[in-house]
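Fold these two proteins, one after the other.
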Amino acid sequence: MSILIKKALLNGKIQDIYVENNLISEIKDSINVEAEHKINAQSMAILPSFVNGHTHAAMTLFRGYADDMPLLPWLQEKIWPNEARLNEELIYQGSRLACLEMIKSGITFFNDMYWNFAATAKATNEFGMRAEISQAFIDFFDQEKAKEAIKLSQKVFGESKSFGPRVKFALGPHAIYTVSEESLLWCKDFAQKHNLQVHIHLSETEQEVKDCIAKHGLRPVEYLDKIGFLNKNVVAAHAVWLTEKEVEILGKRQTKVVHNPISNMKLSVCNVFPYDLFKKHKVEMCLGTDGTSSNNNLSMFDTMKIAALLQKHHSGPTTLPANECFGLATNAKCFNLNAGEIKEGKLADFNLINLKVPEMVPLHNLHSNIVYSANDSCVDTVVCDGKILMKNRKVENEEEVLDKVGQVAREFLG
């Protein structure tokens, strides 16, 4: 497939961009070639598409269900009992809605942890997105459950290759309070053997830290470092209850972290992601929405704005400026993707932003407008892997998805 983008704003200049197959092939002041698709991008800016670093995609089914509760009662009384009732079809339908919602927000990649890899992978492929999907791994310190989880992870890894290059398998040990040390190390070893990433929740709550100290005499990052779990393959979600020593360890081990500001605030984790410390110790960071049961949407615009404002409220007005926040939202390096920039040779994953809307006028600073004033409706066109996923804000089959998933969710939760 080939796409010719005409007269888009790129780095302050009006440029043409030519996409061939799945790569940005050429960027010039003027390009005149035949292309299967030609887009007049006058009054539009071209920007890298967003990377959603931590999701539970199928939890769109739980949007607006069991809100305004503390984290553990919310999980134990509302979420986990209903998740036990989920099947492949429900997870597929919930993931379809998530994919649609993310595309409408300009997201083309998401890092997911949930049950039934195949259901989420099927939805991802259907919508033309990229995803790194981890089969949730929980053993509750039970050897038999650990054996079952290992067997399932091995099986799913083998099956994952059939979904093509846009879908990647990852290991998904849920957290240190739901996964045994032996299983954590199995995940680490399996990931290293097969060059996979490991997706884990880390230091989301103070109670998690207190329990780890009581059990191991160490804080969570110190414990994981002691057992040899941390390395460049690990992507840790949340990471809010940390000391500088722990942040320094994460930097040395090249572990990536995902900031989920809206989920953290809604579930009242009562601490703030230590952005300045992560920056000081050169930790690779990105942003995530978390699941819609704790957000309640998958908007990267909301996530960017709240992330920036939270840091400023906590640390001062110069913390996490707009350009850095946008960089977190598009940081494809966290997932080893050749994307995140509009440059020749990079993957053709990008958004066209409508500049002729009130939120984008005047255009003193593009990144400031994107982070502080824009919203999902400013995204006109979304391209992933050289294919147009949305144009003029329309995604194929979106009405059918909305009707179907709305019905499924109502039937599921009554």
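Now the second one:
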Amino acid sequence: MSEYATFLDHCKFYLDNKPSMFLNNDKNKVSLVISRLRGRAATWAHALRRTNPANPTFLSWFQFRALMNSLFEDTYYLEQIHHDFHALKQKGSARNFSIEFKTFASILQLNEGTMISEYKEKLKDTVQQGIAYTTGITSFELLVAKSIEIDQVLYKIAKASAKKDESHAQKPISRDSTPSQSKNSSSPSHSKHSTQQNASAPRSAPHPSHPHGPLSQEERARREANHLCMYCGDGDHQIQDCPRLRSAVKKGHAKPHHTVSSVSPVPASSTTIVVPPPMGNPPPQDSKRQDH
């Protein structure tokens, strides 16, 4: 609806609700309308009144309204209304659509049958399908009420489905597992390989490749009490079977002071490897170097 037509409707509503003041008094009607004008329309009316305060137009509501119509009425108003009504389709809720539809129907003064057929055609396809399965619709108002009911049901179904999909997409990882555990458990070969590596790995920390240093009194006592290797501290073997000692001897990091058997890859009959004894516990007085 155009701004001018809306303004006239507001004025008419006010005048009809004040019959004691405006029923048979055109001068009061014109004065009220002039007082509510704004912009170019107000400038025109006040200029007309200043030019000729006794102008008979101000004494006749019919003449004053006709003069305003000639200046401000939209001559293409009804044509635009028809165009907008033809393009009308339900895009949001059925409730909002019904209000917009009724506004056009009132302006165009559509009859009951035309309103029913046009309303059905302009609904969303899903709501139209729901209406098609509905019986007992005998009036336009009943049709509107049923369309709103169907539209709300469809909206709730779509909302619940979207929420369900979102919860599946954002499902959290179980507290009993971690991403790394899930990745490892998905590959049996990887899990088996990791288990073998853990089983074969030494329980003590890896030693540097520099020469083996002397042990403190405390460390020596700890290794003896726990039956650990006196060279590397591992609990899986003793010093005579120590692979790190064997490697250190080959690299020249261990010096022959204390006899240790079976630490060299060569036969024991041809070579005997010796390493210095731990500090803090001197070798027995009767220990002698073994020569071959």
